[in-house]
Amino acid sequence: MPQTPSPDLHAVVREIAEEMRARPDRGEVATYIPELARVDASAFGLVVIDADGTIAAGGDADVAFSIQSISKVFTLTLALGMVGDRLWRRVGREPSGSPFNSIVQLERERGIPRNPFINAGAIAVTDVILSGHQPREALGEILRFMQFLAEDPTIAIDEAVAASELRTGFRNVALANYMKSFGVLDNPVDFTLGVYFHHCAISMTCRQLARAGRFLVHSGRTPSTGHSVVSAERARRINAVMLTCGHYDGSGEFAYRVGLPGKSGVGGGILAVAPGRASIAVWSPGLDASGNSHLGRIALEILTRRLGWSIFGV
Ligand code: GLU
Fold it and tell me: Is 180 a catalytic residue?
């Protein structure tokens, strides 16, 4: 149910942005993708869009960053739209308890990744989207979906980030080849990885990301346009997978501290969903040991506590 917007929303967001700017503990910027290592660790942005469409923005709300694994929420949504529940034959929906780029479970589980948000799972999902298309078409489809959801045709791929990961993404190459050996990928590994690296390299601001996430807040519909993006049931299920798997082996900690479905990316962004209440995007490039935004998580913990927005109660 949509709630009355908190009268303090603007103040809360502004205060949190100021608090986060001042903190010395910022985590470590990802360096395994060389282009991401160049990002300024002092950046911090936060945008909340509530049920009325009120936008509260703080800090670097309009600075674009690499959304990385947050793109996996949107590729999952697209792939479910294309093949429905058959997708779950190719990828599981259980938390992995393993790092985002781990290969160990894949051997025991015959090449079927645990969930669509670890790298292996997201590569399998990308392969589903790619089937029957040229890589360029599949990528265009993903990018247009983001632009449509955010109502912003300027959203683009950062080619330097994509090229950087194409040069250095050896683990993802290993994961993809390993899955291919089990017959889990249908397309040439290079094609699937090319699309995967490029959708991870989509560049967006917190404001654009919070806009794109609104359909997950409102039972599958984007309120400003009235577009039904997915059914209410599908939105609920995507949120469930975000809650249980959205932060890799830090998913339990995120649920414990923040209490919202959320998806992180190694660019330092997090998209969080307060069902019926708000779409929230936060960005701080420094990461914790699990590869999730350190201050992003802390900011969301403070936000949900101050506004009573955890799905588990106040
Ligand atoms: N493109 C990144 C990778 O595949 C995504 C990881 C992440 O954002 O967690 O390594």
Answer: no
178 as an active site residue: the answer is no
201 Cα nearest atom in ligand 1: 1
Q: What angle do CA 219, 258, 68 make, to 5 degrees?
A: 75
Q: What is the DSSP string of 11-29?
A: HHHHHHHHHHHH-S---EE
* Angle, helix 119-130 to helix 170-181, in steps of 10 degrees: 70
Estimate to the nearest angstrom the gap between the alpha carbon of 79 and the chain centroid. Answer: 15
pTM of the model: 0.96
Between the CA of 314 and the centroid of ligand 1 the distance, in Å, is 33
Distance 266 CA to ligand 1 centre (A): 6
Instruction: Give CA–CA dist 248/290, Å, rounded.
Output: 7
- Check pocket membership of 101 for ligand 1, CB cut-off 6 A: yes
Q: Distance, CA 291 to ligand 1 centroid (Å)?
A: 9
Judge: domain 9-66+204-307, CATH 3.40.710.10. Answer: yes
pLDDT tens sequence across 236-277: 999 999 999 999 999 999 999 999 999 999 999 999 999 999
- Residue among 29, 125, 248, 263 flagged as catalytic: 248
Burial class of residue 181 (count of CB atoms within 10 Å of its CB; 0-12, 13-18, 19+): exposed
What is the C-alpha separation between 267 and 291, in angstroms, rounded? 9
Strand, coil or helix: 157:
strand
* Catalytic residue (one of 266, 279, 282, 284): 266
CB atoms within 10 A of CB 44: 30
What is the arithmetic mean of pLDDT over 301-310?
97
Task: Given CATH 3.40.630.30, say whether it is the number of domain 69-202.
Answer: no
Residue range(s) occupied by CATH 3.40.710.10 in the chain: 9-66+204-307, 69-202
